[in-house]
Write a structure and sequence with these properties.
Strand content: under 5%
Number of helices: 13
Largest sheet: none
Number of strands: 0
Structural class: mainly alpha
Radius of gyration: 20 Å
Shape: globular
Distance between the termini: 30 Å
Helix content: over 70%
Order of helices and strands: HHHHHHHHHHHHH
Length: 390
């Protein structure tokens, strides 16, 4: 108890930017995402030289951008789950500097030292998540700690040439399971809260989170993704992935998405989660009919669609709520959602029709612009103090 009180006092004494993990990591992750895709497209089209290639692009999207958002979300949500004071101040600063050092090391530092520096961020994050959940005796969220550990182990496996491909699939699988688990909790809950505030009659028809059907679909998705990691070319794997995608769609239809269209901050969560069904379906169809649907279509549905849209939906809502703003989306925030979904859709279409570069360039500009707009519009909230209402 004294340690938690001490951490709380240190947090209040820290600059606003270091009082919650979402502040540095959402801002840093958004800026990194805005830079990564245009740079990769320019290199892919031969406009600029690069030594990173496709694996470097995948590495930074997963273990740079996504790792930052996972860290920002987890270390912000866990105090709400455990009642413990959040990681803040100098400890948070050191973690953020380690993430920045990993980005520099992965791009410019060769050798073992760079690898150790790069992988240490997720390893340490995993340790912090386990520590907080175990000390807080928050056993309900132990699966999230396990998934973060799997993410860290996948990152380590990425650095071995023999396992880099399976590591990428494992990291994508972890991101999909995290979204399936956490999204399945927060989307029905946030939807119910908003519908109740509007006195909407559809609130009575909304399925509560994490019922038996939800758990069954989580299990089916887990089986499908484990098979995809280990047996990515097996026809049965593709079939189970398609079944999981349909199951996730049926699961989501119980959450009254059609009643949320008046509030972008709510419908953005539903729209982001919809990419889970699309991603599972495209990956599965790509295995069954590879001549029709190339593997890159499913991978970009996950990365650009599911991860991109869900992270922005969560980042905007969490930032507004935790900085004392109204949980309501303005026009610029709605534009952010529009850009990320349009960019993701174009990126999947570009994978399905790889003959021209126009869709690829348009997709990159739209998707990156969404994160750039977030960084510009939300930076004052992330850096400045929380609003206190009288």
């Amino acid at each position: 108890m004294n340690a938690s009180v001490d951490r709380g006092a240190k947090r209040r004494a820290a600059p606003a930017f270091l009082q919650n993990a979402f502040r540095p990591f959402f801002l840093g992750g958004a800026i990194w995402a805005a830079c990564l895709v245009p740079l990769w497209v320019a290199a892919y089209l031969g406009w600029i030289p690069t030594a990173q290639g496709v694996t470097g692009h995948a590495h930074e999207m997963l273990y740079g951008f996504l790792a930052a958002i996972v860290c920002g979300f987890a270390l912000t949500a866990i105090p709400n789950w455990t009642g413990r004071a959040p990681v803040a101040g100098s400890g948070l600063a050191m973690l953020f500097v380690l993430w920045l050092a990993g980005r520099a090391a992965s791009l410019w530092m060769p050798g073992l030292a760079a690898t150790v520096l790069d992988v240490s961020f997720l390893v340490i994050l995993s340790g912090v998540v386990f520590r907080e959940i175990i000390i807080g005796r928050n056993w309900r969220n132990l699966p999230i700690a396990i998934l973060v550990l799997m993410f860290a182990l996948s990152h380590l496996a990425f650095h071995h040439p023999a396992t880099s491909a399976i590591a990428i699939r494992a990291s994508f699988a972890v991101s999909m399971l995290l979204i399936s688990l956490i999204g399945g909790r927060i989307i029905p809950s946030f939807t119910r809260n908003w519908l109740a505030a509007q006195n909407a009659p559809s609130v009575a028809r909304l399925a509560p989170p994490m019922q038996g059907f939800d758990k069954l679909m989580l299990a089916l998705t887990g089986v499908a993704l484990v098979m995809w990691i280990g047996l990515p070319d097996l026809w049965l794997t593709g079939l189970i992935l398609v079944a999981a995608g349909l199951g996730q769609l049926l699961r989501q239809l119980r959450w009254q998405w059609q009643a949320t269209l008046a509030e972008p901050l709510v419908w953005s969560l539903h729209a982001g989660f919809f990419w889970l069904s699309v991603s599972l379906g495209l990956v599965g169809v790509g295995i069954i009919f590879p001549a029709i649907v190339p593997p890159s279509a499913g991978l970009h549905a996950i990365a650009a669609g599911l991860v991109g849209a869900m992270t922005l939906a969560v980042m905007t809502r969490a930032t507004l709520g935790h900085t004392g703003r109204s949980r309501s989306a303005d026009g610029l925030t709605t534009l952010i959602y529009t850009f990320v979904h349009a960019g993701a859709a174009l990126r999947v279409l570009a994978a399905l029709n790889p003959t021209g570069s126009g869709w690829l360039i348009a997709a990159a500009l739209l998707w990156s612009s969404a994160f750039l707009l977030f960084a510009i519009a939300y930076a004052p909230m992330l850096v400045g103090p929380k609003r206190v209402h009288a």
